[in-house]
Amino acid sequence: MLIIKHTLRFFILMFISLILLPYNKDTCFAQSPETVINSFKKLNIRCNIGLSYRDYNRELAEVIFQHKLFSEKIETENVSSNEEAREVIRNIKIDILLTEAQSLYSFANKVWDASFEAPGRDGILYIGKPAWKDFFMLLPSVYDKIYQHPKIFELGGEKCLRLQYILSILWNDAEAKLISAETVYTEEQ
Questions:
Q1: With 50 as the cut, is the pLDDT of residue 27 above it?
Q2: pTM for the whole thing?
Q3: Contact predicate 98/177, CB 8 Å
Q4: Share of residues in the chain with pLDDT > 90 (%)
Q5: pLDDT at residue 10 above 70?
Q6: What is the domain partition of the chain in residue ranges?
Q7: Which of 21, 97, 103, 129 is deepest in the core (most CB within 10 A)?
């Protein structure tokens, strides 16, 4: 009985302590550049070793969440010294590169999603169709890599490319942005 009484008292004190602790969104959820870069690195590694569509969506959602927290932190930072100004500028550079990487990962998600509705659902995308051309034109560097890919083939008179090659192109470009963000972080630290 005595153990239960002390345990109950402990939990009540812990609960009250948690309620009375000062809550500050900036300190509780603020993300360091290293944290957000590591979340992107984790997604990159998962893409390289293989993951399911469902797992990709879950991993991408986590990356987007971490990146959003990092971006919000940058928006609310106050600058009162040259050192803080340099840090904010470095973080903005990192944020720009990670935004580009996130766009590529999100773009890959859209392509992967659309592949489920493609004819035959066999991992082949008819990239010769105007809708796909318009879609890939949104990212000019990706467009050239896709439409000049050596594995393009024709099926029913249409240019085709397997989904795995398209995802690889998108993920490789995202990885390049991530490496650039890491370089900014390490060189300007």
A1: no
A2: 0.80
A3: yes
A4: 59
A5: no
A6: 25-187
A7: 97
